[in-house]
Amino acid sequence: MLSFLYLEYFFQKRLPMVRRLAIIFLGVLPLIIIAALTSCERAPEGSAEWYFARALQLSNQGDFQTAISNYTQAIKIEPLLAKAYVNRAAAYDSLGEYDLAIADCNKALSLDSNLPLAYLNRASAYNGTGNYENAIEDCEAAIQLDNKLAQAYINRAIAYNMEGDMGKSIADCNKALEIDPGLADGYYHRALAYEALGNTDEAISDFTAFINVSKNDTLIASAKLEIQKLSTPPPTTTGTNSR
């Protein structure tokens, strides 16, 4: 599923000096990591922010289990640190622990109901459990808080796809790509929707665009296989005359 670490970007009014460090791909869907270059890096060793920064680095390395341990330590020190719950939820989601991810998002939202990534990560976990209706509702809540959050449209597109509504899935991918034309997920999930509709040329075009912008070797290989499959004409059947 598609989940995100709590981006310090959303705390920029409180922690103004932040910067995007990396966009990486983990598992089968992308995970954006943004780390603060102020309070986290300069936090005293053993403080909640110090553990939070360590957890960010561990998530960046794909070590979600150890990241969870560090987020948990941050929470023990500072139980009201909402962003730690949001990030731990993303780590749980990456490990397929969807119920734990949902619980952490619930806790974060009980501390601050205006966290778009808490809704986004909960939507991802709901997608993982097959609760697409709740996933769609949470994506809409995230969009209401930040209508430029492209990944909220992607998560909703995934839910619509799973519900069989390819038109809405494509529309959400279009919106995500309007916000971020280089967003690989937008091309990939739109391609899947086009493929489901039998729109072969559009699907091949989007799979190709995905390959050109993605850094996810696993999904690139999958997209190439889809292109090969879509480009191969169906076998012709030769009838036989019977007497």
Description:
This protein has 2 domains: 1-142, Serine Threonine Protein Phosphatase 5, Tetratricopeptide repeat; 147-232, Serine Threonine Protein Phosphatase 5, Tetratricopeptide repeat. Helix content is 65%, strand content 7%. The chain has helices at 39-42, 48-60, 64-77, 82-94, 98-111, 116-129, 132-145, 150-163, 166-179, 184-197, 200-213, 217-231, and strands at 18-26, 29-36. It is elongated, with a radius of gyration of 20 Å.
CATH architecture of the largest domain: Alpha Horseshoe
Compute the separation of the termini in Å: 57 Å
Number of domains: 2
Category by helix and strand content: mainly alpha
**How many beta strands in the DSSP annotation?**
2
Features:
single chain, 243 residues, mainly alpha, Serine Threonine Protein Phosphatase 5, Tetratricopeptide repeat, 2 domains
Give a topology summary.
Elements: E1 18-26, E2 29-36, H1 39-42, H2 48-60, H3 64-77, H4 82-94, H5 98-111, H6 116-129, H7 132-145, H8 150-163, H9 166-179, H10 184-197, H11 200-213, H12 217-231
Helix pairs in contact: 2-3, 3-4, 4-5, 4-6, 5-6, 6-7, 6-8, 7-8, 8-9, 8-10, 9-10, 10-11, 11-12
Compose a concise summary of this entry.
By secondary structure, this protein is mostly helical. The protein contains 12 helices and 2 strands, in the order E-E-H-H-H-H-H-H-H-H-H-H-H-H.
